[in-house]
Amino acid sequence: MSLTEIIRNSFIETDTRGKAFDFIQREAGVPRVVAKRLLFSFLWFPTEETLQKIKDSGGDDLPSDIKSNLESAVAAKL
What we know:
This protein is an all-alpha fold. The protein has helices spanning about 5-15, 15-30, 30-45, 50-55, 65-75.
């Protein structure tokens, strides 16, 4: 299952944000901090490539290309 599907399903299957983090953590096999980043990044810039890079970073600071994409997406929505 792709990361975008996992995160979409977390919204459908759970009723709280904490349970959504647990769902993502369990299904994607990532630490909770990465699950949080995946969920919030999905809200702003939901591409599979971006989510995969966040997962691969393992909770470290966001790679610069993802950070610039997220900043651009935020600026466009404001």
